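Continuing the batch. This is chain 6 of the set; chains 1 through 5 are on the previous pages. Same settings as before, nothing changed between runs. Recording input and output for traceability.
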Amino acid sequence: MGLIDAATAPLRYVLHSAEGEAHAVVPIHDVEQMQTHVLSAVEAIKDATEQIEAHVEVIEKLASSLLPLTDAVATLTAQLSLITEALVPVVAAEREVAHAEHEVSRLGHLFSRSRPV
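Output for chain 6:
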């Protein structure tokens, strides 16, 4: 059952009851009961309206934050691109150092003697 259905159910009940008894004499007790149902329906509609208004406010705030968020993501992407470009030479230098270390370790093995046991 949707929010609107829940809010209007008491009112539909009252209208359905009144429709069925349109030509009959309605005792005062029934009128008071119908008034109670109508008041309940009005309160439920009021509460549902307030909740819908609160949801609309939240959605409006969310929508207004999308443009700044999009701008922030674009700025971050540009900054990451600059960082990546700056790291390319560092990565290349690191590879050269690793290669040099490997060559030095190979040279060390050339000069070592193997001793018989």
